[in-house]
Amino acid sequence: MISLIFLGRAIFTISLYVLILRLWMQLARVNFHNPFTQFIVRITQPIIGPMRRAIPSIRRIDTATWLLFYGVALLKIIFIFRFQLLDAPLFTPYYLLFALAAMVHAFGHLIFWLLLFRAILSWVSRGQSITDELLAQLTEPLIAPIRRIIPPIGVIDISFMIFVFILMFLNLLAIDLLGNLWLML
């Protein structure tokens, strides 16, 4: 049973990451000729395409993708409560709020992983790959404000480390506020 719970959580988490990337790439206006960007769009288009016909965008807000993102987070919450806490009800209105926490949790963890991949690639490829370009387009708006306050020290850029410390602090604050719920997400 534990292996099935792991598999279910992994599928929901990866689905959330893919939807976040789709929304974030639209917002950051990344290069859509990048193969990874095209991959994200292609795997989400079969679901989001029909949803867009029924749910129009509001200005630059892709409401169909946001609703799907929320729906997947809600399904993840129901899955976690149903299979990890065996006596939990199938649905309660609190799940609607917990789904927002799951969205924030997934976004924070995705930011961490993208920053880690970008830092590792900066040591290896020195900005010469299309992956570096994509990661820079996604993460630079987050890092730039810190870099303006604390510029690089020689060739060492500590803005990544500062941002990760901020993420760690926010993660610990969420644990203080939400307790075991945050840890289960």
UniProtKB/TrEMBL annotation:
Belongs to the YggT family. It comes from Gilliamella apicola. PANTHER family: PROTEIN COFACTOR ASSEMBLY OF COMPLEX C SUBUNIT B CCB3, CHLOROPLASTIC-RELATED (PTHR33219:SF14), YLMG HOMOLOG PROTEIN 2, CHLOROPLASTIC (PTHR33219). The chain crosses the membrane at residues 6-25, 61-83, 95-116, 155-175. The keyword tRNA-binding does not apply. Keywords: Membrane, Transmembrane, Transmembrane helix. GO terms for cellular component: membrane. This is YggT family protein. Coiled coil: none annotated. The lineage of its organism: Bacteria, Pseudomonadati, Pseudomonadota, Gammaproteobacteria, Orbales. InterPro entries: CCB3/YggT.
